[in-house]
Amino acid sequence: MKEIYIRKIEVVKRPESLGELTALLDTAGVESVAVDCVNWKDFPYSPGVKVRMAHTGDALLLHWTVSERYVRAMADADNGPVWEDSCVEFFIRPDQCSPYYYNVECNCAGTLLIGRGTGNQDRVHAAQSIMEGVCRFTTVDGKLFDTREAPAEWHVGLYIPVSSLFADEIDSLDGRVMTGNFYKCGDALPQPHFLSWNPISLPAPMFHCPDHFGLLRFE
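Request: output the structure for the sequence above.
Response:
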């Protein structure tokens, strides 16, 4: 099982741009981890993917960097099928003794999905008021577009208040140990792919597998 140490950083106000978010991570020296596990031989395509993560006590900060051949953003509303697009994902289980976990999925244009449940068939989506509280930043222009050539590199930044984990009462992330995984997918792209940070030993692509999460240690 892989582990990641998630540094705490001081934030005076929430970032209002990708530049402000990345500057916070740069100043704190937060390093990237690679999302590069190709778990299924039938889907060998492996775009370049890395993610940085930190926390403020009451929020999560994530910055994704992706290099791939194609991009797509057809999900036209939050909690839609963003996984069919060029999509980055973060799954987290706050309580290791509980079967419940959250999936946070964001396509390259900033359309977001947040769900909670014990498996891929029982998800309860976050209310729109919660979705609106998550700051999303992206370098990909266009809210809705079909498959096209990707830029050399694209980025997604997320500022996720801890209240977005809507069924758990978490007053602070300080010192907590949770489990989770980072993913990159694109189910409807010309080269579908299913990458993970922590490896998955299942016979077919499946991200809803908390038994294959890695360890998240919060400063």
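The mean pLDDT is 97.
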